[in-house]
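Inputs:
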Amino acid sequence: MTDRPWLDASLPVAQRVELLMGAMTLDEKVGQTHQVANIHPEADADALRGATIGSSLFASGATGGNERDEGVLAFNIDAAQRHAVEGSRLGVPVLFGRDVIHGHRTVFPIPLGLAAGWDEDLAERAAAIAAHEAVVDGVAWTFAPMVDISEEPRWGRVAESLGETPVLSGRLAAAMVRGFQGSDPGHPDRVAACAKHFAGYGLSAGGRDYDTVSVGENTLRNLHLRPFKAAVEAGVCTVMAAFNDVDGVPMHAHRHLLRDVLKGEWGFDGVVVADWNGIGQLVHQGVAENLRDAARQAIEAGVDLDMCSGSYAAHLADLVRCGEVDEALVDDAVRRVLTLKFRLGLFERAYVGEPSRGNAPTPQTRAVARAAAEAAHVLVSNDGVLPLDPASGVVHLTGPFVEAGEELLGTWTLDGRGEDVVPPAAAFRERLGEDRLLLTDGRFSDRAVQQVRGADVTVALLGEHPWRSGEANSVSDIGLPAGQLDVLRQLARIGKPLVAVVYTGRPLELGEVMGLADAVLVVWHPGVEAGSALASVVFGDASPHGRLPMTFPLTTGHIPTSTHQRPTGRLIERHEDDRLGRYLDDLVFPRLPFGHGLTYTTFEYGRPRLSSGELPLAGEVEVEVDVTNTGDRAAREVVQLYFRDPLAEVTRPLTELLDWQALVLAPGEKATARFRLTATQFAYYGRDNTSRTDSGEILLRVGPDALRGESLSLRVTT
Ligand code: BGC
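Outputs:
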């Protein structure tokens, strides 16, 4: 202990970090800023013993890739770790990171689907289960949640996001951070989280992944930075830099946003990690002459840990020795990385050991996965065909996802397994038996059309394969994949009831689908409980209650369409106004507004009430609204509160989500949704990009989605 005083766990972390740093050479420090992919216990043995690798991404070993038997990954991690802990001069453990995005073995809906649940508690429980399962595989750090504001459905990565609004994204992100990290990320069941991708990535030009971003600081601050701030306030341990530039400055070299805003203004004291080769890409982006120059710019900008470009490992020490980089910058980065390692308890528990428990889905984790999958089901239209009566009629289940397993897990699932998924056909068979179920698996063509007459209702499972969304999977057209609409037209032509179930990683153009089908359910990619959740919603055991976390535009040509559009000088008072409308050939309202979602009952909203028409800067007021379940089924209603600031220093969104509250109401039951408001909720960044709260009018609206509901006027007074 005496020659390694930092191992004394009774000392405060900050002191342990300083003791360790005091013993480190410059090269050993630089090692802490270097992350490699797929560390290998033999191939990387010398580097680990020489302390030139501080962190690992993916962490697979001799078996390679992700195909591995239970425990092999943990074995490889321990074998690699042993070199670092027992073979290196100072014994600093390696930090193992992995993308655990929406579940580890128990896969939950894709994040956009999770967001459709509008349920912080569910998001927190899902993240906690993911952490609990991931640690068994030696994972100490996940690269989630992704909180990029998403208003561009062509961009494949909207699937990984929590939607288009800062409030929903920010609160769900904070919930996920709590779930991953708990109150102490060093607890053996928790992992460090990472808010990504800082910042503006959701604005990639044309929805093309990795493309450039032109956005001003005011829009960034009033919109795109907000969920990151929420994650930082929730204590997120790490933040990942984004691939894109922001108005010409690539984020991996963006000193102002990383150092001044994130670390300075917000006081973020965790680790800023590069994205994959993000530092190396500064060369491709044409702002760095070579890798050495890229390393200099990134460390100066505040990137602490280099993911896989090798630039820090190759050049940082030399840059310091040549006087081109201040050693204090390296020290700051290393201090942050070591602090995280101490906080995670890696010095006390470096090894995973033989997994003491498995991490396959259990009845308990499946129950949460099923609740999350059900909550992700958004009923976007229904002429009364749903729910189906499970006791009568023959159901024809058709479409490319009928027998699907792995396809229903969605993008970014490194550890989920197809065999863990309940396919729709299995769940429907269990419900209906063989006799009342007609299946046309995969052959979504003539065969499917023939079967329509033999059944009382057709349930068509359409939409995107997960490979059509996610990273690097952008599309130029948000229509359904080729051919699906043709078959749907044929199915509809027979005139029997038709239900369309849409699996997707993004908002799609659903106009014609809604016209052809008697009911449309958007279910995203729902995870391991896909089939069972679908059966319970379709047959009415559960009333659907998902709400769209992104606006669905009329057509691809209407992108972007979102709640945070700001007023122009030429007001469009009526959508059908052809002179002032923005397109000659089409109208300018969304197909489906943000927050939209139907259920099997109806809700009636009373007039919203304010406890006072005036809100002093330091005071608070309450808005309340009575909501009555006027139908004959119990259901969950997401009561949404929106606002508009009609007079400010800068243009402000026409509609902005402020808060929401879920009410679960029995038939005939009436309840009151109450929202407490303080003036700080109306704060915004003004012309000088500092935060301000103005006195004056605020227009509030309470309703079931971003377009409907009754307005109220509130006056903020100073
Ligand atoms: C993605 C990140 C991800 C990283 C590591 C990158 O390509 O942009 O979101 O965490 O790879 O897998």
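Remarks. Residues 60-72 have pLDDT under 50 and may be disordered. The two ends are 60 Å apart (CA to CA).
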